[in-house]
Every structure is written in C-alpha cells, then in structure tokens.
Amino acid sequence: MSEPKPAKSQVIFWVFLFFAIATAVVLISVFNIRSRHERQQAAIVEINRLRGITETQVRRPWGIPDRLWPSVDHLFVHLEKVDFNSKKVNDDDLRLLQDTDHVWKLLLHNTEITDAGVQYLKDMPQLRVLTLGNTKVSDAGLANLTGITTLIDLSLGNDKHGDAGLVHIGKITSLRMLTVGGADITDAGLAHLSKLRKLKTLRLSGAQITDAGLKQFSSLRNLHLLEISGTNITDASLTDLGSFSKLKRLALVDCPLRGPGLAELGRLKNLQSLQLTHTRIDDDGLRYLPRLSRLRSLNLSDSNINGAGLQHLSGLPELHSLTLQNTGVKNAGLEHIAKLKKLSGLILTNCPIDKAGLEKLRNAPELSYLNLNDTPIDDDAVAALAMLQKLKVLQLKNTAVTPDGIARLQEALPDCKVYTDP
Questions:
Q1: For residue 197, which phi and psi values (nearest 5 degrees)?
Q2: For residue 130, what is the enclosing H or E element?
Q3: Which residues does the UniProt record annotate as the domain Disease resistance R13L4/SHOC-2-like LRR (predicted)?
Q4: How far apart are CA 228 and CA 238, in angstroms?
C-alpha cells in the first residue's frame, strides 16, 4: 500500500511555519544589526569627543542584493581602529569599546590607563594590535592580556615593566611583534619570551640585560627584526645572534660593543639593515662588515669611528644608505664612501668635513640624499655640491652656507630640494 499523502492543510501549515520562522530570524538579525550599529555610532561620537581618532570600514556581507545594498550599507560600517595616544582618557572611557565588535587596532600610549582598564580589552574579539607604553598598567595588569588569542602586535614601550610582566607576556603565544623594556627586566625574565616562537619582530631594552640573557632566545628562529637598546651586552653575545638565519634587520643601540664580535654576524646571510649606534665600535671593528654581502643600510652614528675604517665598506656592494651622524669622520674618509657605487643616501650630520671632503663625493654616481646639517661647511662647498647632479634632497641646516650660496645651489641643481634654517 502506498503512503497516504499529507492533507493540503498540513502542507500549507508547514510552509507557513517555515516562512514565519525564517521571517523571525531575519527580523531578529536586522534588529541586532541595527542595535549594534546604533551602539557603535554612539561609541564613535563619544570617542571623538575625547579627541580619539577613529577609522571605519564598510564590510559588505555575502548575499545582499545590489538593489538593496544602498539602503542598508550604513548598517555595515565597522569601527576597526581607535587611536587614543596621548589623549586624556581613563579606565572608564574604555567601556566604550564594549559596544564595538570589530576593533582590531587600539593605541593607548601615554594615557592614564591602569590595570582596571585593561580588563575591558578581554571582551574585544578581534583585537590584534595594542600599544600600552607609558601607561599605569603594572606587571600584574598584563595578566589580562593572556586570554586575547587574536593579539599579534603588542607594544609596551621602554616602560617600567620587569620579569613579573614577562611571565604573562610569555603566555601570549599568538604574538608576532613585541616591544618591551624596563629597568627591572633581567636575564632570568627573558626566559619567558623564549616561548613566543611565532615572533618575527622583537624590540627589547633593559639595563640589567647581559650576554647571558640573549642565550634565552635560541628558540626564536623566525625573527626577521631584532632591536636591542640600553643593555649591557658585549661582543661575546654576537655569537648567539649569528645563528638567527632569517634576520633581515638588526639594531644594537647604546650597548658596550667594541667591534671584534661583528665577525659572528657574517653568518647572517639575509641581513639587509644594521644599526650600531651609541657603541664603542671604532675603525678597526669595521673590517668584519664585508661578510654581510647583502647589507643595504648601515647606521654607525655616535660611535668611535674616525674614517680610516670606511675602506672596509667597499666590500658591501649592495649598500644604499649610510649614516655617520656624530662621528669623527673627516675629509679623507669620504674618499672611501665615494667608492660605494649604489649609495643613494648619506648622513654626515655633525661630522668635521668641509669643501675638500665633499669634492671626493663627485665619484658617488647614485647619491640622491645628502644630510650635512651641523657641519662646518660654507659657501666654498657650493661648487663641490653642484657637481652632485643626481641629488634630490640636500640638508644644510645650521651650516655657514649663505642665502647667496643656496641660490647658486638651486640654480645648479634645479631638481634638488634644499633644506636650510628658517
């Protein structure tokens, strides 16, 4: 026997029920979207009143017909970035963020935020970038960040954090970028950062950090950028740094380096940018640099270089940018610099050079940016500078070059922007 067919009334009932439920779902969704939009708009108004900077983005969901979109697009404007840097905001103001679901970048540097305010960040489901430098957030307050599994970029600045704070930071294993510093950070505390194996960028400072501390980073094999400043690391630590094969940018600032350890950096075959500023490196220490054959940018500012060691830079065929600010580089050293065929940017701020040295630069074929601020040059150097026909930017602030000399330069180099004192 065949199955009895359902009565027509039953079919109508089930069809009606289906459409009723579907309609209810749509109405509830529309109500929720509109309600969320209104709360978000109110939050944006209040954020702007606090002089915060907001950035929104329209995100069109799949399935909305073209003919309907113009009438509903305003409902899908999402607040994605909030900048409170250096604004007078407090913990209660962060309650506003509870009415936003799509903020992924939040900047709170130099604000009055405390541990109490950080608790509100746990309710931000898409937060990926966060700055908290120069706030009142303590080491204990950082525990509130451990549950934010979406966080990939955290900047705590060169703040007052110590080893206790690193305990919590080490639990945020989603991090790709981290900036942290503090007088109470020690070698022992750095062990907690060794768990952050996805890190690609690390900026670190702390006066108590020594060579032993850097040995804790052996597991951070994905680092592309490493900046270490204000520490007590010496040339001995460069042996450990030489093992980071993916490193492209390295900055060692305000450290008691002398130079011999630079030989270990020769293993960094992918290194393109090297900053060695406020160190004790002298001309002899530069003889190890030619091993960095892919280096494109080198900053040796505030070191003990006088110029003779610049001859070793001829072994850097890809060097495009060289900074020698506040060094003792003299005229003779510029002869070595002129041999860098791909050099396009040169900073000689506060170096004891004059016309005789600048004449040597005429053999630098690609030089397009030259900074001579705070040097003893005068109008006698104009003729030498006029020979640098590829110059696009020339900095001459706080020099003895007169307005007449500037006029002659601009006539000789019509495509060059010359910056002088007001």
A1: -80, -5
A2: strand 129-131
A3: 119-350
A4: 12
Site of tokens 């270990």: 264
H/E element, 58: strand 53-58
Q: Is the pLDDT of residue 376 over 50?
A: yes
- Residue 285 placed within a domain: yes
Q: What is the CATH number of the domain that holds 382?
A: 3.80.10.10
Q: Report the first-to-last Cα separation within the chain, whole angstroms.
A: 102
Give residues with Cβ within 8 angstroms of 117, minimum separation 6. 90, 91, 92, 93, 94, 137
Q: Are strands 153-158 and 201-205 parallel, antiparallel or unpaired?
A: unpaired
CB atoms within 10 A of CB 70: 8
pLDDT above 70 coverage of the chain, percent:
87
Instruction: Measure the CA–CA gap between 232 and 251, rounded to whole angstroms.
Output: 14
Task: Annotate 94-128 with DSSP letters as a single string.
Answer: GGGGGG-S---EEE-TTS---HHHHGGGGG-TT--
Q: Domain for residue 197, yes or no? A: no
Cα 2 to Cα 41: distance, rounded to the nearest angstrom: 61
3-state DSSP: the chain helix, strand, coil percent, rounded to 5? 40, 15, 45
Both tokens of 287, joined, read: 């003889």
Out of 33-37, 95-99, 227-231, 235-239, pick the least confident: 33-37
Q: Is residue 51 domain-resident?
A: no
Q: Is residue 373 part of a domain?
A: yes
How many domains does the structure of the chain reveal?
1
